[in-house]
Amino acid sequence: MSLHLLPLLFLHTCALNLETQNPKNFSGPKGSYFGFSIDIYEPKDKGLSIVVGAPKLNTSQPGVTRGGGVFLCPWQLGSNDCSIIPFDKTGDVNDTKNNIVQVFKSDQWFGATVRTWNTNILACAPLQHFTFQLRGDRFNQSGKTPTGACYLTTDLKNSYEFAPCRELTVEHTYALRNYQNDKRDCELGFSAEISKDGMLLAGAPTGFFFDGIFMTVPLTSIQDAPTGTQRYFPKLFTSPEFTVSVDAYQGFSVTYGEFTYDDNPDLIIGVPNYLDVGAVHIYSNSRRFQVIRGTQVAAYYGYAVAVTDIDKDGFDDLLVGAPVFLERRTGGKLKEVGQVYVYMQRATKMFGRDYQILSGNHVYGQFGASIAPLGDLDQDGYNDVAVGSPFGGKSGGGCVFIYKGEKSGLSTQPSQTLENPLSTPSKFGFTLRGGKDFDDNGYPDLIVGAFGADTVYLYRAQPVVALHASVSFVPSILNPDVKNCTLGSSRVSCFDVIICIQASAKASGRIQQILLNLLADIQLDSQKNRILRRTFFIDATTPSKTVSIKVPNNGASVCSNVTAYLKDESEFKDKLSPIVVSVNITLAVPPAGVLPPVIQGNTFLQEQIHILLDCGDDNICIPDLRLIASWDKKPLVIGVDNLAQIEFHTRNQGEGAYEAELYIWLPSGAHYIQVLSKAKEKIICGPRKTNGTELVICELGNPMKQGAEIPAALQLTISNLEESGGNISIPMQIKSRNSQNSSSPMVWVHMDIIVKMSLDLRGSIHPAEVILPLPNWELKEDSKNPSDRGEMVTQIYELHNGGPGTVHVQLVIQSPEYYEGELFLYPFNLMIDDNMNCSQRSPINTLQLMKPTVAPLSKADSHRMNRRELRGDDYDDMRTENGNQTTTEGIFHSKLPILLNCANSTCWEITCVIKNMEKGHRATLKLDSVLWVSSFLKRPQQKFTLRSNGYFEVTDVPYRIKPTAYISNDTSADLVVQWVTPDGQKEIPLWWIILGALGGLFILAIFIFVMWKLGFFRRNRPPSDEDDNLTGEQ
């Protein structure tokens, strides 16, 4: 049966030196679990091959379903064939010669474990079932149990069976001996390893009722044992019973190591459920001499074990996997990430107590389910290790982490990560095998099994080349005045960039027979933006260039040089900073079939060349920068956009200051307007945003020469000063690019801040005048209608903040209410703005009068009338008590008006507090009252003036600074109550009329006399047509 190599595309992985873009992959029948176990087959002089187990493969064995199989995949470039190894072509065994012996091979998982040694290949079926029954007694049998079996082939044709757990013993016999030495469920071959001397170590973790068993036997004993269903194997050692805890699963993983340094290798046995925390037992000469326990319950410590000499100190080091270890992450939550423990053997039989722990980074990724020593991948003198995480990776389909060996152990972080090449879950990394060089390039390779995708991947290690490179310049300093090169028709200042490379391979192989084709990407003035670069290549007039350099890997140095030139000084600004040249060395695309090497060493170089300056023999300019600054002393006002002007004077008393600039750090709320230069040199300033504020930078010269002085004025707008203190400070400083004494001392400009306020209170009353008696008005004592009690009056007080500051204000309004114990002005409806918090001295509308549904102003206006409009009938009620009518002269005698205010009457009062009243805001209070007419009728013809008062006072401001004084003011509004007099009804006397007419005639006569005196009546008349004719006849 043959299989084909499938071409796939892979994403490039950031690597140590395993080539990840084109790994070779072998695929098996779908659903066969091809890749569940793997090993490397290395017969003498026949090259390397991969042995792959497929434990769920359907084979041609008669009567067997999913018996499993093992494939041999030889390594050859261009070869894509895998063939099945004919271990066992027979079906189930049913031996009835004496008693009944049966072996069941369906679902036996043959190929779950494969191991090789020289020309020997071992494959195991841990779930192969066995049963024994006495002839004629079907009730006296052993039962059908998974004893397991392994098969050994030495020539890829014939095989030998190894099934030591089979016993011709029935259940009754087991019961009589209390089930001691009961190996019926041992699942032999669950794990296996073969020593360098050909000694098989096989694990049977469910033997002895899940306590676990391990066995050792020479491979030659398996070959030499007599045939039969139950065979005797010389030199077979079986671990004794009752040496571990209950359900410990001893033999879950096994390997060899050397920790006692006697004549025999030591056995490392994984026991993942030992005392619930797991353990690793180390046996020497069939005697357990060390137990290493896990630290967490159910972490499956001992699931995988591996041995390698990481630091190459001559002592084996131990690695133990615990793939379901729970790690406490941020917030105290436990996450199943898995761990690998690294025990470095510092002396014979001793492990360091300060073991190293490697943790996975994918939850439920089962980091540590497989561990494989890789040998020295990059030939750095330390052995490297691969750790599998079959459910980790970006897609959850598995990944493999490569850890570099170091003197202290393994690198704390993986040096390379192999991601699952497929997009579907494939258990990538479930099995690993490494340490062998398939392509004979001197570097060991890695095999990764992905049984979920029925695929095995071979990752080849790329050769490692140590690179030493350098960059130099001729001349070493660039003089703009020395122009030795020609560019077109102009002479330019130039220099040579010289790149020297030396390469040496760390191992033998094909890489030594070819030249390394390297590409050097050169960037001139690389620290500058491309449009600001000062140097270009003379043959390309660009600042970048790629040069091909062929370098042998035998350590010989190869140099290449290119010529660059400096632009004219008028074309660039920066003369002080060095010109940085960057060189990035990469490997060109190799020839087909050649595995590209990995370059180690410094492949990115940076060197700098300086421009010669006019600064003395040392080429170092030392300026002496001075700055003086002041402002116009006009304080800043909170709440307005202040215009401020800062006068400054800059001076350089030392050597030239290159790229000299004045820095002004404006506080929050300050903005740059313009700069006013007071010197011949024009100064340029511009603002930049930095952390929410403005930084103004003014160019002072490049260079700012010795003795240069620049006076100027900076105009700013400053606002948003509400959070400021008594002043704001503006720091200013001159900076240059010089290496020494590059800045002036910091200068601070301090500006004072003040608070200003302006408030206006206005009061009015509508109507301002009421004339009594009211027409058609009649008192109704029991009515709730305000108009039945008198005239409705509205008082309005409005407080306006003219700014600019925001203030806290207290407003007090007072209105006359009682006079001489009687109600004169009854308040019944109050309206205030939402921003006012008011409290009253006494309640309003205690009589529960109805509030008006329309604006009272219109109603009040309807009661206003001219005195002349009062009808004569209105006086009919003004009679004496005996009913006799009196004359008006007797009733309407003159009375002095009375002023009612809070000094001579009882006032209604309200106090309102207004917080954070901003500029332009208004606060309005409106009070509807009833002029209690019945109280006035008791005092006929008595004029009254009712005066209400309003008063405000600023109590505070919401700023860190306070004003020197708080303002206050008051106002008032008067309501005049008038009475109609009988004089308004008298006829005008006749003599008044005659006297008025005579006065008018007298004034007219005076006017005519004045006009006559001025000559108005003696004017010449304009000539007519008749006058013209008469003049012509004469």
UniProtKB/TrEMBL annotation:
- InterPro entries given in the database record: FG-GAP (IPR013517), Int_alpha_beta-p (IPR013519), Integrin_alpha (IPR000413), Integrin_alpha_C_CS (IPR018184), Integrin_alpha_Ig-like_1 (IPR013649), Integrin_alpha_Ig-like_2 (IPR048285), Integrin_alpha_Ig-like_3 (IPR048286), Integrin_alpha_N (IPR028994)
GO CC term (a single one): external side of plasma membrane
Q: Which domain of life is it from?
A: Eukaryota
Integrin alpha first immunoglubulin-like domain residues are 461-613
Which parts of the chain span the membrane according to its record? Answer: 990-1012
Tell me, what's a Pfam family for it? FG-GAP
Q: Which UniProt keywords apply?
A: Calcium, Cell adhesion, Disulfide bond, Glycoprotein, Integrin, Membrane, Metal-binding, Receptor, Repeat, Signal, Transmembrane, Transmembrane helix
Where it mainly occurs, coarsely classed, is membrane
MF annotations from Gene Ontology: integrin binding; metal ion binding
Q: Look up the signal peptide feature and give its range.
A: 1-15
**Subcellular localization:** Membrane
Question: How is this protein positioned relative to the membrane?
Answer: Single-pass type I membrane protein
| Integrin alpha second immunoglobulin-like domain: residues covered | 615-750
- What range(s) does the Integrin alpha third immunoglobulin-like domain occupy? 759-979
FG-GAP repeat start-end pairs: 20-82, 287-352, 353-412, 413-476
Q: Please cite one Gene Ontology biological process associated with this protein.
A: cell adhesion mediated by integrin
Q: Which PANTHER family does this UniProt record tie to the protein?
A: INTEGRIN ALPHA, INTEGRIN ALPHA-IIB
User: Which family does the record assign?
Assistant: Belongs to the integrin alpha chain family.
For this entry, the protein name equals Cd41 antigen
Q: Which organism is it from?
A: Dryophytes japonicus
